[in-house]
Amino acid sequence: RRALTCACETLARVRLWSLHPSLLDRAALVACWREALLAQKVLAGGTVGYTRHPQLERFRACDDPLGAVGHYLGTLADEADARRYRFDRTRIMRPDAAPPGIPVTEGQLAYEAAHLRAKVAARAADWLPRLAGEPTAGTSFVVEPGPVAGWERP
Predict the structure, then answer these.
(1) Which residue has the higher pLDDT, 87 or 6?
(2) Contact 21, 32 (CB under 8 A)
(3) Of 8, 28, 67, 130, which shows the fewest CB atoms inside 10 Å?
(4) How far is the C-alpha of 143 from the C-alpha of 18, rounded, in Å?
(5) Helix locations, the chain, DSSP H
């Protein structure tokens, strides 16, 4: 029972950020890398868990879901390189994928920025100045007007 409870709690906290990876603090960047690798495994049919997670909807909606998550992972790895972290790029199934142009709304970006600010305030307050101003989206995304995404579970 305990393992099942822990797995459910973990899934509830999964966050595939739409924000540009340069905005993510260390903990968010590392967690996002790990969770995006899991998303890639799900989209490749390599696991039976996590398959209905709502944040995967936007990757599944792409013409090439594995390419979309591959590009997304590449952007996370680029940011890791810039910070001199070591993310294993050999784990990306489609490392040369083109930007997928996943739609993300201004409302979703604002929601994610507020969510990240709250997390950072509690764990790495020195990172907060980097989160001032309008949030920018990662290069896998195309910003459009609109509210918080329907798949978001606030």
Answers:
(1) 87
(2) yes
(3) 8
(4) 10
(5) 2-13, 26-43, 57-60, 65-82, 106-123
Tell how many helices (H) and how many strands (E) occur in the chain. Answer: 5, 2
- Which pLDDT band holds residue 14 (cuts at 50, 70, 90)? low
Return the structure tokens found at 80: 């890791």
- Which residues 6+ apart lie within 8 Å of 122 measured at CB? none
Provide the 10 A C-beta neighbour count for residue 16. 20
**The domain 12-143 is classified under which CATH number: 3.30.70, 1.10.10, 1.10.440, 2.60.40?**
1.10.440
Residue 48 half-sphere exposure, CB side, CA atoms within 13 Å? 0
Residue 128 has pLDDT above 90, yes or no: yes
Rg over CA atoms, the chain:
15
Half-sphere exposure of 102 (CA within 13 A, CB side): 31
Residue type, 34: R
Predicted structure pTM score:
0.90
**Collapsed DSSP state (helix, strand, coil) of residue 144:** strand
Q: Give the model's pLDDT for residue 53.
A: 84
